[in-house]
Amino acid sequence: MTGGYRPWIILGMNTFAFTVCFACWTMNAVLITYLIGNGIHDWTRTEMGVLMAAPVLTGSVLRLPVGLLTDKYGGRIVYFVLMLVASGFLGLNYFADSYLFFLFCALGFGLAGASFAVGIAYTSLWFPQSLQGTALGIFGAGNAGAAVTTLVAPSLLTMLTSGGANPEAWRWLPVIYGAALALTAVVFWMVTTTKVVEGGRTKTLARQLAPLRDIRVWRFGLYYFLVFGAFVALAQWLVPYYVQAYGLSLAMAGLFASIFSFPSGVIRAACGWITDQIGARASLYWTFALCTVFTFLLIFPEMFVRTPGEGIIANTPGVVEEVTDREMRVVHPESGRVDVYELQVAEGAPLQEVEGQEEFLPLPLIRSEMSWVGSPGEAGDFREFQPGDEISAGQLLARGTTTIYFQANVYIFTFLVLMLGLAMGLGKAAVYKYIPTYFPNDVGSVGGLVGVIGGLGGFICPIIFGLLLDWTGVWTTCWIFLFVLSVVCLVWMHLVVRGILKKEAPALYRRAERTEPAAAQAAAQS
């Protein structure tokens, strides 16, 4: 490590610049929600998803070439130019008046998202292997820029538009963002120092791209697609989610969405230290397992379900002696024995009355009740049971109905997305702990490609979320998609680990595969 405080100054400036870039990168989450919510533009949910995802596309696709440029020319100049160009497109948003114009601007200022590839490569040059996880974790805390936008942008829009009295004043929001990014670029240039990877200026493009033939790089990319791409997508998608699924105001939706994005970004610094202690592999096992659990729990929306439940079937034939609202007495003519059948009656208020109330209900409410089916009449219909009706064995006497009401309480929902965000924070740190370990001289190219794949998750996921919502009308379909993706990552990583163990430690692998201890096997054979 270069001596003195210089590495930490570079790290601090890198992190600050990345935070500002990330805040600008996710600006459309709030802006597009405001424009649609206030009737300024009438776009479909899919179009909304595309506009939110457009900056992510540019910032993702350009991460690889930007990473290559960083390896060759150094992070200082690349970072500076990148921020200035992105700030120009932000300012251009002031003149946007059509969907295509908004899309063009979004693709332009999306360049700010490529800052991640620059910062990762530039930061890793200043620290030894033993501190890579911690340093890159601190840098990655700049993800909290998404929370800055969801917290600050709604209040800025309220102030700029005078509480909605002057709605067209929204145009100053991207101008303010662009000015902040341009100022950050100037400060960054004044504070930082040029440093290039050893041999970077003479490395050919073919040599830079050589590590990309390793399947490990693409596997890391899939992991990052989940822990980073889905994080970026949710940081934007949760704003309209809260507004439309829970009826919150834009400001409150931004506050709740920041509960997901801010801790996940900030904790990444601590997660970098954790990966230094327990390793990237163990960290990813925890990440994918937790993502699987929390996305599964988030799948269930607010719902009111009526379904057939347990009924009553006659055990033996007989004649109805007496029937009331609560029980039926059936006499067996030959033996004189009496069978008493009791209805199960639901206790408490009907769930229809509970639905929509503000009472805090963390768990589903379940009501089961029964009603007499009745005796077949002459016209083929059913009439009420009467004394003297003959009952046959196996005849259905009472039909059961089970009613389930799940509130999907907003506070429970927010707690679950918070836990999911923290798990993703650990995963983001773990993936980039791997890269300098396996590819120490190609952090720019490998980190760039992994960033491309991960960033594409931020582009693709909102579009998938929007399509699923348009097709089904159910907001929680996004969690079904992320649940499947979490399971795929967990299973693939586990299979790879088993393959490595089988190849490098066959004796240990065979012991792990045994279904019972050797002593027990020997005893069973004797």
Task: Provide the descriptors you would attach to this structure in a database record.
single chain; 526 residues; alpha+beta; Growth Hormone, Chain: A; OB fold (Dihydrolipoamide Acetyltransferase, E2P); 2 domains; 3-stranded antiparallel beta sheet; 20 helices; 9 strands; 63% helix; disordered C terminus
Q: Mind explaining what this structure looks like?
A:
This protein has 526 residues and is of the alpha+beta class. It folds into 2 domains: 6-196 and 214-300 and 410-502, Growth Hormone, Chain: A (Up-down Bundle); 303-406, RNA polymerase II/Efflux pump adaptor protein, barrel-sandwich hybrid domain (OB fold (Dihydrolipoamide Acetyltransferase, E2P)), CATH 2.40.50. It is built from 20 helices and 9 strands. It has helices at 6-25, 28-37, 45-61, 63-73, 75-92, 99-109, 115-124, 132-140, 145-160, 172-191, 205-209, 215-245, 250-278, 280-298, 351-354, 410-438, 443-472, 477-504, 506-513, 518-525, and strands spanning 303-313, 318-323, 327-331, 338-342, 365-372, 375-376, 382-383, 390-391, 396-406. The strands form 3 sheets. It has a 4-stranded antiparallel β-sheet with strand order 4-3-2-8, with no helix packed on it. A hairpin with a 6-residue loop joins strand 3 and strand 4.
